[in-house]
Every structure is written in structure tokens, then in C-alpha cells.
Amino acid sequence: MLSMLREIWMLLRERKKFWLLPIIVMLMLFGALLVFAQSSALAPFIYTIF
Questions:
Q1: What's the confidence (pLDDT) of residue 26?
Q2: DSSP SS3 for 1
Q3: pLDDT tens, 14-43?
């Protein structure tokens, strides 16, 4: 996992695409939210948001 983050960071730094960083972070947070929503008691509350 750490090497993948390092690869992404090097790509963003080399190509000067720092504007992609917030998009990547939001996608990761959204994915984590979906994973935690499937196996927790918070699922009914999260699904009402969407």
C-alpha cells in the first residue's frame, strides 16, 4: 500500500498534476466509507444520505 502511494505521489510530482490530489483523496475516503458502511451499525444512517 505504501509503495502504491509513493508511486502516485511521484507521478503527480513529475507531471505537475497536483490538482488531481484532492480528487484521489476524496475517492479513497468515499471507498473507505462504503467498506465501513457494509459491516457496521452505521449502515442505515449512511444509506439515507445517498
A1: 94
A2: coil
A3: 988 889 889 999 998 988 887 777 776 766
Could you give the CA distance from residue 24 to residue 9 in angstroms, rounded to a whole number? Answer: 11
User: For residue 37, what are the contacts with CB-CB under 8 A and spacing of at least 6?
Assistant: 43, 46, 47
Q: Which three cell numbers stand for residue 31?
A: 471507498
Cα Dmax for the chain: 42
Query: C-alpha grid cell for residue 36?
Result: 465501513
Residues 6+ apart with CB under 8 A from 21: 12
* 12: CB partners within 8 A, 6+ apart: 18, 20, 21
What is the reported pTM?
A: 0.61
